[in-house]
Amino acid sequence: MKVILKKDYIHLGREGEIKDVRDGYARNFLIPKGIAIISTDGAMKSLKTSEERRKKKLEQKKKALEEMAKKISEITLSFSKTKNEEGHMFGSVAKSDIIKALKAVNIEIDKEQIDMPSSLKEFGVSEVKINLSIDVRTSLKVNITAA
User: Model pTM?
Assistant: First the structure.
């Protein structure tokens, strides 16, 4: 099934691209989540007429994301966790903790944008990668200390 992407999706492509995907993937995931629409003649005409506006919008969005990436790269988040007698951390620092801490400094990101395979479970400074879009990637430092 051919679909037109309504917004950037890291695993598939950029806004406005036409992709050939499996029927079930389109019907059960992409279309209900508002990521894509079915490629019809009317949708194709609409895509061509709005192409110039979309290019300007994408340029502005990319500039804003690059500014946000620069801001994020300068941030070091600090967390304090308790430890047991052996020096191991109770709990961990998860994606949701990072999102809350960034929200406190007026930076809004989604859970999917954080590239972290598992929660941080070690004391010290770690680097966490953030994928703001397909083109714009950055990282921030997370410092976990013992309470």
Answer: 0.69
Question: CA of 91: how far to CAs of 48, 67, 88, 106, 118, in Å?
Answer: 51, 33, 9, 26, 12
Selected from 3.50.50.60, 3.40.50.720, 3.40.50.300, 3.40.5.10, the CATH number assigned to the domain covering 2-49 reads 3.40.5.10
Q: Rounded to 10 degrees, what is the CA torsion of 51, 12, 22, 44?
A: 0
Per residue in 101-117, pLDDT (tens digit) is 999 999 999 898 999 98
Q: Which residues pair with 5 in a beta bridge?
A: 36
pLDDT by residue (tens digit) across 59-99? 898 899 999 999 999 999 999 999 888 888 888 999 999 99
The number of CA neighbours under 13 Å toward the Cβ of 147 is 9
The answer to whether 146 and 81 are in contact (CB under 8 A) is: yes
